[in-house]
Amino acid sequence: MITLIIVLLSGTAVGVLLGLTGGGAGVFAIPLLTLLMGFSFMEAKPIALIAVAIAAFVGALQSAKSGHLRWRAALFIVFIGSLASPLGQWIAFQLSHQWLVYSFSILMLVMASNLFRQAFAMVGSRCSDNDSIQRPCMLSEKTGRLIWTKKCAAKLTAAGISSGVFLGLYGVGVGFILVPALSRSTNISVQATTATSLMVIALMSSIVAGGMVLDGVTINQTGLTFIGAACVGAVIGRLLSLRLSSLTLKWGLGTLMVITAILFALIS
């Protein structure tokens, strides 16, 4: 009974964080599954992948209704990322459990530092107009769609490759690559960046997880319960995201990442 409660609470917590942040907070799934439920890193990956995929679909579909989703850009990145993900999976199989844990903990600290940097920037400046800055991928004033140039395709290809390798290696955390990449490469709105990132995460995670299942990877009852709880938490998180400021989320998420990364590295 106690184990079931831990699984339900952990899954719901991850889902809430996913709903709040739009996919990047899936990094918490791996430490929780490993530290509290006894999974190895490689056993936790498919569980985290499926939980993140479903939670991202929830957010992406909600955003798509408002017309913010950039389908062509999302599908292009998913295609490139899916081709690159086997490389990340191959690298993961070359590393021991301990090295995966250490490198993952370091990445969590890097993600936390980026969140703190963004939070300081938000406090220090009043705001910037993303539409007025020249980017490789610019929206057409006539059609409202992205203008596809060689430079634009190259930037989105780079985003797809890095996201695919990262997803294949760790299974989670792609949102922290995609959102900055889209923000630097395009002049689409913040809402469109989030919606497009969510759809990429949902589709790419589904493809990679599906490949693992076809390779014979199975998920036990504990993993399925965790995934179900994460789905419920994602809905809650999306509702809470309307009430919390971006600055509060960055400070809170960054602090939680630092604590989790240290515990993960020391205990695993």
TrEMBL record:
<feature type="transmembrane region" description="Helical">
    <location>
        <begin position="73"/>
        <end position="93"/>
    </location>
</feature>
<keyword id="KW-0812">Transmembrane</keyword>
<feature type="transmembrane region" description="Helical">
    <location>
        <begin position="156"/>
        <end position="178"/>
    </location>
</feature>
<feature type="transmembrane region" description="Helical">
    <location>
        <begin position="248"/>
        <end position="267"/>
    </location>
</feature>
<feature type="transmembrane region" description="Helical">
    <location>
        <begin position="99"/>
        <end position="116"/>
    </location>
</feature>
<feature type="transmembrane region" description="Helical">
    <location>
        <begin position="198"/>
        <end position="217"/>
    </location>
</feature>
<keyword id="KW-1133">Transmembrane helix</keyword>
<keyword id="KW-1003">Cell membrane</keyword>
<protein>
    <recommendedName>
        <fullName>Probable membrane transporter protein</fullName>
    </recommendedName>
</protein>
<feature type="transmembrane region" description="Helical">
    <location>
        <begin position="224"/>
        <end position="242"/>
    </location>
</feature>
<dbReference type="Pfam" id="PF01925">
    <property type="entry name" value="TauE"/>
</dbReference>
<dbReference type="InterPro" id="IPR002781">
    <property type="entry name" value="TM_pro_TauE-like"/>
</dbReference>
<comment type="similarity">
    <text>Belongs to the 4-toluene sulfonate uptake permease (TSUP) (TC 2.A.102) family.</text>
</comment>
<keyword id="KW-0472">Membrane</keyword>
<feature type="transmembrane region" description="Helical">
    <location>
        <begin position="39"/>
        <end position="61"/>
    </location>
</feature>
<dbReference type="GO" id="GO:0005886">
    <property type="term" value="C:plasma membrane"/>
</dbReference>
<dbReference type="InterPro" id="IPR051598">
    <property type="entry name" value="TSUP/Inactive_protease-like"/>
</dbReference>
